[in-house]
Amino acid sequence: MRILFIWFLYSIALSIGLALKGFRSQSSSTRKTGEKRPPPKKILIIGATGGTGRQLVLQALERGYLVTALARDPSKLGIEHTNLKIQQGDVLDYAAVESAVKGQEAVVSALGHKRYLGPSRILSEGTKNIIRAMEAEGVRRFVCQTSLGIGDSAGFLGIYYTFLVIPLVVPFYFWDKTRQERLIAESKLDWVIVRPGQLTNGEKRGRYRHGSNVGNYIWTVRVSRSDTADFILNQLTDDTYLGTAVGVSW
Ligand SMILES: NC(=O)c1ccc[n+]([C@@H]2O[C@H](COP(=O)([O-])OP(=O)(O)OC[C@H]3O[C@@H](n4cnc5c(N)ncnc54)[C@H](OP(=O)(O)O)[C@@H]3O)[C@@H](O)[C@H]2O)c1
């Protein structure tokens, strides 16, 4: 009983930390308006070999973009297309990121990893490199996937995640997501943070909810990686959520 109570307090404290450390739209004084620019044609996809990243590559090619995919192991991508260039590189290597960003008109990121078990800064350090390279190269539009459960969406993955998955499995990973979001919000870019619910490999429905009220404290909302990719790509040309973090779920 006592252990359960301590676990409850720890989970609540962690949620409060994730709420305060992550990006909070309400506490943001300036909502970026974004200078009017022609829609991007050339985009860089970070995390392209992952579940969402692969969907981003396929759907971006379908939409007619000229796509560069940054991949640590290009052979993992397994997609060939005349409009696709695969650039080998690690997001933690600034020179590789800058070289990939050069000449692009927008960047999207679905960066993630499975090193859950200890403190890590892969998401935040990788994102720091992306932002630095974009600012250096004058590339403005950045759409970055994080997760519900951070900042003003803390707790919105429901009880199962709030009291079990996040405190037990991914506390360090989620903590790094808060740093990642802060870096984006503090950047000079035209950015959108996309926070999906639990991801599935289900099909693209093309219909999903998005906004600041997505998710809830009780049950876990879900969305497929393909619908998440669809929403992320929409943010390249839609200014509705510019300078904010937006939830997405079925
Ligand atoms: N799972 C969920 O239910 C859920 C829910 C909400 C949000 N999210 C978040 O959504 C994001 C995408 O998730 P996902 O499951 O679709 O992705 P994923 O399959 O975990 O893929 C992550 C991608 O990041 C790449 N990556 C990792 N470290 C890298 C590095 N140092 N340099 C370059 N690339 C690197 C991976 O490359 P390699 O192939 O080389 O490893 C892979 O392409 C993640 O941030 C995840 O936390 C997940």
Mind explaining what this structure looks like?
- The structure is a single chain.
- The protein has 250 residues and is an alpha/beta fold.
- The protein has a single domain, classed as Rossmann fold.
- The protein is 38% helix and 18% strand.
- It has helices at residues 2-21, 51-62, 94-101, 122-137, 158-169, 171-186, 225-234, and strands spanning 42-46, 66-71, 84-88, 106-109, 141-145, 190-196, 198-200, 209-211, 222-224, 245-249.
- An 8-stranded mixed sheet has the order 3-2-1-4-5-6-10-8, sandwiched between helices. Strands 7-9 form a two-stranded parallel ribbon.
- Helix 1 crosses helix 5 (158-169), helix 1 (2-21) runs parallel beside helix 6 and helix 2 (51-62) packs across helix 7 (225-234).
- The chain is globular.
- The N and C termini lie far apart (36 Å).
- 45% of the residues are buried.
- The model has no long low-confidence stretch (mean pLDDT 95).
- Bound molecules: NADP nicotinamide-adenine-dinucleotide phosphate (NAP).
List keywords for this structure.
alpha/beta; 250 residues; Rossmann fold; binds NADP nicotinamide-adenine-dinucleotide phosphate; 8-stranded mixed β-sheet
Note the overall shape.
globular
Q: Output mean pLDDT.
A: 95
Which percent range fits the helix content? 25-40%
CATH superfamily: NAD(P)-binding Rossmann-like Domain
Gyration radius from CA atoms, angstroms: 17 Å
Uncertain segments are: none
At the first level of CATH, the class is Alpha Beta
Domains, number: 1
In spatial order, strands of the major sheet run 3-2-1-4-5-6-10-8
What separation lies between the terminal Cα atoms?
A: 36 Å
Cofactors, ions, other ligands: NADP nicotinamide-adenine-dinucleotide phosphate
Category from helices, strands and their pairing: alpha/beta
SSE string = HEHEEHEHEHHEEEEHE
- Strand residue percentage: 15-25%
The biggest beta sheet reads:
8 strands, mixed
Q: At the third CATH level, what is the topology name? A: Rossmann fold
Any guess at the CATH architecture? 3-Layer(aba) Sandwich
